[in-house]
């Protein structure tokens, strides 16, 4: 409910122009309403959506469920850049000829453990996921 819309609606119904401050005062004092700030909610954090999901899948046996999740790592993230040396001497860290490759891992896990996984150089596109599902995961489940 917005004050401007409420003010306009009151004017259209009664023909009396009420100030925004008076409308605010009535909302707070007489009706016990307070001003709330609107915010976007992630539907995955919505209790109603979570309850609907649980209701939809609760009858499926746990060993029928398979979960896939994409995870990425860059070579630079795992380089050794620190080490122990005598005080006063420079630490040796050879970063020559190191490529900053990005690798993506896409595992499929069920209640019994890992079913299948792929590792791709670079980011995984939707096509890669579809191929993984059709060729490796579905064929491995038969």
UniProtKB/TrEMBL annotation:
Residues 65-137 form the Tc1-like transposase DDE domain. InterPro entries: Tc1-like_DDE_dom (IPR038717). It comes from the Eukaryota. It comes from Cronartium quercuum f. sp. fusiforme G11. The lineage of its organism: Eukaryota, Fungi, Dikarya, Basidiomycota, Pucciniomycotina. This is Tc1-like transposase DDE domain-containing protein.
């Amino acid at each position: 409910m917005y004050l401007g819309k409420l003010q306009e609606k009151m004017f259209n119904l009664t023909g009396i122009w009420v100030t925004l401050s008076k409308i605010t005062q009535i909302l707070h004092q007489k009706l016990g309403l307070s001003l709330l700030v609107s915010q976007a909610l992630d539907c995955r954090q919505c209790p109603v959506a979570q309850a609907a999901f649980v209701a939809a899948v609760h009858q499926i046996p746990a060993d029928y469920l398979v979960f896939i999740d994409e995870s990425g790592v860059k070579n630079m993230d795992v380089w050794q850049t620190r080490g122990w040396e005598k005080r006063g001497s420079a630490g040796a860290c050879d970063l020559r000829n190191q490529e900053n490759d990005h690798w993506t891992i896409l595992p499929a896990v069920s209640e019994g453990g890992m079913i299948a996984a792929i590792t791709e150089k670079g980011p995984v596109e939707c096509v890669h996921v579809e191929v993984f599902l059709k060729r490796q995961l579905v064929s491995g489940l038969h």
